[in-house]
Write a structure and sequence with these properties.
The protein contains 5 helices and no strands. By secondary structure, it is mainly α. The protein has a domain of 65 residues. The mean pLDDT is 75.
Length: 105
């Protein structure tokens, strides 16, 4: 009789599943309480004149870290990304998001 081998999750996979579970549970809890979800709060930060730049910078760092699997401060090729985030692009996306969320528009 052949045994079925089960794939065990790595610690990183468990961490991703835990993060996913936290986000789903937190957003469900916030929706049930009629509060802003994490996605809605992110949209608010993108619409704020000062928070937008910080939000864009942090998002860029996270995306680059996930894509290249190394911490950004030690990557010389991303120094330009860290110091000059593509704010114009993010601002245009925030404005589009704001227009789509406008109940009167």
């Amino acid at each position: 009789m052949r045994q079925v081998q089960r794939n065990k999750l790595s610690p990183a996979q468990k961490a991703w599943l835990g993060l996913f579970g936290y986000i789903v549970i937190a957003d469900a809890y916030l929706m049930r309480r009629n509060k802003d979800t994490m996605s809605i709060q992110f949209g608010h930060w993108l619409q704020h004149p000062r928070h937008r730049k910080l939000c864009v910078g942090v998002t860029g760092l996270i995306i680059a870290h996930l894509y290249y699997s190394t911490p950004l401060p030690f990557q010389k090729r991303f120094r330009l990304l860290v110091t000059v985030p593509p704010v114009d692009l993010i601002e245009s996306l925030a404005l589009q998001n704001e227009e789509s969320l406008d109940p009167q528009g």
